[in-house]
From TrEMBL:
<dbReference type="InterPro" id="IPR002347">
    <property type="entry name" value="SDR_fam"/>
</dbReference>
<dbReference type="InterPro" id="IPR020904">
    <property type="entry name" value="Sc_DH/Rdtase_CS"/>
</dbReference>
<comment type="similarity">
    <text>Belongs to the short-chain dehydrogenases/reductases (SDR) family.</text>
</comment>
<dbReference type="InterPro" id="IPR036291">
    <property type="entry name" value="NAD(P)-bd_dom_sf"/>
</dbReference>
<dbReference type="Pfam" id="PF00106">
    <property type="entry name" value="adh_short"/>
</dbReference>
<dbReference type="GO" id="GO:0004090">
    <property type="term" value="F:carbonyl reductase (NADPH) activity"/>
</dbReference>
<protein>
    <recommendedName>
        <fullName>carbonyl reductase (NADPH)</fullName>
        <ecNumber>1.1.1.184</ecNumber>
    </recommendedName>
</protein>
<keyword id="KW-0521">NADP</keyword>
<keyword id="KW-0560">Oxidoreductase</keyword>
<dbReference type="InterPro" id="IPR045313">
    <property type="entry name" value="CBR1-like"/>
</dbReference>
Length: 277
């Protein structure tokens, strides 16, 4: 039975470099997902030029039909999934003039809710020893939240996915009411989205720990400050360097104990997500 790795938002940037590295290091098929097939095909062609052989699949993570089609392909052609890298994300530029409510809704919808939909649909297909990587960010640390009450809720070791979704909706209501800063939420929607994605990672590891499938590991990763379209090419690191920690987490050997449900930095070391320094 062939093994399968899936990387979302992989037609460019860090996702593209993750696919390239997995093509070299992973013993199985690597699926390069792109919401636009033309852009995806160009990315696949570029890797084929290097002698690598990723498989292209369309995936718009905000579209449940598109996620369902990917799930069908995985079921029918691979019978299961061994690596899932949730890399796709958006970020409004700091000087964006769109209303904050729109920025918050768009960013939370893609970076949190769409990733959650991908997880809900694809997690049933994960095989024992599967590895899931959520590409989070340095912006997704607890210290972005200034309210002690909200921090307490987010760090509650019994917090459920439904309770987290309620908190995310509470954040959106507070943004609409113009009170999110007073309430102590992160200032930027991107940071809020990544804080929520980090917390989702910890919740999902707790669920995997109770799963009948053995040894499924999920981590959140800060890939570093990378030179991509998302950072307007301000990050100093190459995409290959940015891919290192996500790939490390994707290829954790069977039964490794750490990192597991952790926040991993670009040097592949675990950091304390709750640290307020
Ligand atoms: N670059 C950094 O310094 C940095 C730092 C911390 C964290 N990160 C995180 O690293 C990850 C990759 O970022 P990047 O810097 O490589 O950004 P990027 O170059 O802008 O690439 C983002 C990728 O996500 C895709 N995407 C966006 N929305 C999507 C959707 N709704 N459905 C499917 N695909 C979608 C994009 O597709 P299109 O080409 O079609 O738009 C693109 O392939 C993100 O999670 C980001 O938050 C980056």
């Amino acid at each position: 039975m062939g093994r399968l790795a899936v990387v979302t938002g992989a037609n460019k940037g860090i996702g593209f470099a993750i696919v390239e590295a997995l093509c070299k290091k992973f013993d199985g098929t690597v699926m390069l997902c792109s919401r636009d097939l033309e852009r995806g095909q160009k990315a696949v062609d570029a890797l084929k030029q290097k002698g690598l052989n990723p498989v292209l699949h369309q995936l718009e993570i905000s579209d449940q039909n598109s996620i369902n089609k990917l799930a069908e392909t995985i079921k029918n052609e691979y019978q299961g999934l061994d690596i899932l890298v949730n890399n796709a994300a958006i970020a409004y530029r700091r000087d964006a003039t769109d209303p904050l409510v729109k920025q918050a809704e768009d960013t939370i919808n893609v970076n949190f809710f769409a990733n959650l939909d991908v997880c809900k649909t694809l997690f049933p297909l994960l095989r024992p020893h599967a590895r899931v990587v959520n590409v989070s960010s340095a912006a997704g640390m607890l210290k972005q939240v200034t309210s002690p009450e909200i921090r307490q809720k987010l760090t509650n070791p019994d917090l459920t996915e439904d309770e987290l979704v309620s908190l995310v909706n509470e954040y959106l209501v507070d943004v609409k009411a113009g009170v999110h800063l007073d309430k102590g939420w992160p200032a930027r929607p991107y940071a809020a989205s990544k804080v929520f994605l980090s917390v989702l990672t910890f919740i999902h590891q707790r669920e995997f720990n109770k799963d009948s499938r053995e040894d499924i590991v999920i981590n959140a990763v800060h890939p570093g400050a990378v030179d991509t379209d998302l950072t307007n090419h301000k990050g100093p690191m190459t995409i290959e360097r940015g891919a290192q920690a996500p790939v490390y987490c994707a290829l954790l050997p069977p039964n490794s104990l750490k990192p597991k449900g952790d926040m991993v930095w670009d040097d592949s070391k675990i950091v304390d997500w709750q640290s307020l320094e």
